[in-house]
UniProtKB/TrEMBL annotation:
Protein name, UniProt field: Probable allantoicase
Gene Ontology molecular function, alphabetical: allantoicase activity
Keywords: Hydrolase, Purine metabolism
Domain Allantoicase: 19-166, 186-315
Pfam families the record matches: Allantoicase
Gene for this chain: alc
Gene Ontology biological process terms, A to Z: allantoin catabolic process; purine nucleobase metabolic process
Record EC number: 3.5.3.4
InterPro entries reported for this sequence: Allantoicase, Allantoicase_dom, Galactose-bd-like_sf
The reaction(s) this protein catalyses: allantoate + H2O = (S)-ureidoglycolate + urea
Length: 332
């Protein structure tokens, strides 16, 4: 597959910024395994040599002088259903592996790499080229926690992207106190007015934004309108506290914001947070009272600008807990 498939717009479940980790590799003689899941696109500077040779922004193993293959194991930052995998050999030209495969497994608890078992092939052994992205669709509709990249026989891979949909374990959430808008709990962005500088999905990503580029930012408006983003909550629930975080946005923070709720089952719409003044580079928290049950929330910013994170803390309704539980059971 050479064209960019639609599933690449889904979250990267393996990325370091969402908690992913390369927990093991059998070899990293030339370039460290951790580079595989870095968020930035790979880079390269010619004639940049370290004590291991030319510095590569990727994972690179030694030249094999015996039979075998090289492997790296990644613990997903967000367990979920994998829709597709990208194996990127950017800048590896005379040292890329000619073939690769990907396996996945689902593990409970916090196992060590050598305790993982039950590997299933999600990408069969496939040919690779140098200095290009390779797109592999995945058909298995199961929830996975780890993936294992195998390269044949050796060489370098710049990035491994694992795109899919997070699926939360209902045993590891508190139904009465959770972020209903969290990507890791199953929330997703369903629409937005503009994403010129930053993707709206960043708003609901795990953790705090460390730089402006890890948030959502729109172009400067030259009309009388305003920008907005809509989120489908992880499951039906009641929002009790909203966090609107403008961290790192200083000269480009919105002046005001509001949040509207919607119940897709009844069509009802209502105010969650009325239009409220915001400060630059600030985590704003607002306690909410008497908010009806919601399935969706819409953040409006006035007139434009950037937001780092949106958190909507609350509790699942009985129907919401059922949705979370069934989603997990359907892909086990």
């Amino acid at each position: 597959m050479t064209e960019v498939p639609g599933w690449t717009r889904l979250p990267d479940l393996a990325c370091r910024t969402v908690g992913g980790s390369v927990v093991w590799a059998n070899d990293e003689s030339f370039a460290e395994r951790e580079n595989l899941i870095r968020r930035p696109e790979p880079g390269f500077r010619t004639y940049t040599f370290g004590h291991k040779g030319q510095v590569y922004d990727g994972w690179e193993t030694r030249r094999r002088r015996e039979s075998g293959e090289d492997r790296a194991v990644v613990r997903l930052g967000m367990a979920g259903v994998i829709d597709g995998v990208v194996v990127d050999t950017a800048f590896f030209t005379g040292n890329f592996p000619p073939f690769a495969s990907v396996e996945a497994t689902s593990a409970s608890g916090h196992p060590a790499p050598d305790e993982l078992s039950g590997w299933e092939t999600v990408v069969p052994k496939s040919p690779l080229g140098g200095d290009r992205k390779h797109y592999f669709a995945v058909s298995a509709r199961r929830r996975y926690t780890h993936v294992r990249l195998t390269i044949y026989p050796d060489g370098g891979v710049a990035r491994l992207r694992v795109h899919g949909s997070p699926v939360a374990d209902p045993d590891l959430i508190l139904p009465d106190a959770l972020d209903l808008a969290a990507l890791e709990h199953g929330a997703r962005v369903t629409g937005c007015s503009d994403m010129f500088y930053g993707a709206p999905g960043n708003l609901i990503a795990p953790g705090q934004a460390t730089v402006m580029g890890e948030g959502w930012e729109t172009a400067r408006r030259r009309d009388d309108g305003n920008d907005w983003v809509e989120v489908e909550l992880a499951a039906p629930g009641v929002i009790r506290l909203a966090e609107l975080d403008t961290s790192h946005f200083k000269g480009n923070a919105p002046g005001w914001a509001s949040v509207r709720g919607r119940d897709a089952r009844t069509g009802a719409e209502f105010d969650v947070l009325p239009r409220t003044r915001l400060q630059p580079d600030t985590r704003h928290r607002f306690r909410l009272e008497h908010v009806p049950e919601a399935t969706h929330a819409r953040l409006d910013i006035y007139p434009d600008g950037g937001m780092a994170r949106l958190r909507l803390f609350g509790g699942l309704t009985p129907d919401g807990l059922r949705v979370i539980t069934e989603r997990y059971q359907d892909v086990r």
